Amino acid sequence: MSTVTPTRPPQPGASAGRPAEAGRVGGGLFDPKQLVASFPDAIRKLDPRVMVKSPVMFVVLVGSVVTTALAIKNPGDWFGWAITVWLWLTTIFANLAEAVAEGRGKAQADTLRKAKTDTVARRIIGPNEERVPGTELRIGDLVVCEAGDIIPGDGDVVEGVASVDESAITGESAPVIRESGGDRCAVTGGTKVLSDRIVIKITTKPGETFIDRMINLVEGAARQKTPNEIALNILLASLTIVFLLAVVTLKPFAIYAGADDQTSLIVLTALLVCLIPTTIGALLSAIGIAGMDRLVQRNVLAMSGRAVEAAGDVSTLLLDKTGTITLGNRQAAEFVPVKGTTAAELADAAQLSSLADETPEGRSVVVLAKEKYGLRERHQGELAHATWIEFTAQTRMSGVDVDDRKIRKGATGSVVAWVKERGGAVAEDAQALTDGISQAGGTPLLVAVEDGRGARILGVVHLKDVVKDGMRERFDELRRMGIKTVMITGDNPLTAKAIAEEAGVDDFLAEATPEDKMALIKREQAGGKLVAMTGDGTNDAPALAQADVGVAMNTGTSAAKEAGNMVDLDSNPTKL
User: Fold this and answer.
1) CA 224 to CA 243: how far, in whole Å?
2) What percentage of the chain carries pLDDT values higher than 90?
3) Where residue 510 falls among pLDDT bands split at 50, 70, 90?
4) Could you give the CA distance from residue 377 to residue 393 in angstroms, rounded to a whole number?
5) What band does 14 get if pLDDT is binned at 50, 70 and 90?
6) Does 320 participate in catalysis according to the annotation?
7) Of the residues 212, 320, 348, 536, which is catalytic?
8) What region does 454 belong to: left with phi over 0, alpha with psi -120 to 50, or beta?
């Protein structure tokens, strides 16, 4: 398994505080160093087997050979030599433009390739671990990584939480948190674990990792022509045939006018090159490569030219809320008890019911109870004869049954239904508390208990999510461009409305399922609009695949990155 070490020298134009993409070649098309480095590639591209892929430039190459032969036949013909020089310069310029565009990507790929090293993975086999080369890992294998270890392959964290250095991929020096049970579980081979211990489930085969795909894409090996590029190639080839036939018919007129064969052939060849769409044919492939390269310069990896092409005509932009518009790590901020319950009693019950909740939200409840109310952080093994209820997306609750008490914590609807099933009454102020938190843009979690006094609501846990800096300004800019922004979230309508107003989006879709996201995209597309979708979770994958432009966050799950046709390495939608 190949990995990459951070080797990213700073570059002019890089954003403050973050080095630029590794190996990126500075300067534009006419940068002298880049021109010199790309010139040998431009000469190699004169191979007719390569040139024939561009019919227009193939005709120019044939014309260059013909005029060269005629000029050699008559060395004193300065006119013939002048035309020959111009035709060869035209041909070489076309190849040089493409070579420069490819060269910028190859420089990045070479840096990544040189930095590769072999790693040893700690693969879990039953209760034991074994050390194996990273190249032997297969999809589904579980590997352990601790502080200082290089992650041996792409995968998802299935146990634990750790800070990871991803500067080899994103150029961002600040470490990021990767944890199980959320949308921030994806890790990339070649990145380094800085703290704690995580268990990773491998999701890719050796040679097909994200870094391998980056290398292929940035050097152009995996670039596919877009529909417009294919159509334009057909049009240019057709025009070339038409003008070729037109110029051939001029030969008798040249003979009739008294021109000699050599001069007439040289003039007619020059006329043909002037008539056919030489410039467009010369720059067509370079334009496609340059488009993808410009995205790479902004740390966005385009998986296809089609996505780059469609991005220019997008009229509707859909954005997943959690992890895209907001930071994604909702944290417990406050315990709000109902009448007749103390905050300390609520905190104790909330902490107990969260011990079986491995989501970031559940862990934050445990931490808040410890920090704010001095409750010692307890563990499942300490409570004998306890039955733990793990949090699932279906039940949307977690809890514990211990000492004749049943405690539950979770989504408002789920907990209210649980209390009513047991004949309990919902406190009058519980609804008011949850509505107030939702209207403020927070997420309420109810905590309930069933004991000798029956089933009842103890209070509400207030979760907060923070909108990323700069999002409102970017949405304002997109609105001026005529692009409609729609926030998609699984939150209730009140919470969704508050976040939408804070972020400044045009519209929102609350309590959205993957099917709802797909239906919205299809409705927009049925109206003749091109749709872009950004997301980071597995539940976003179908929508990312359906959208014309699917931008997956690099912090997201492997499923999201596979479904999208662009990956934002910085996971920063303010670049949109």
Assistant:
1) 29
2) 10
3) confident
4) 25
5) very low
6) yes
7) 320
8) left
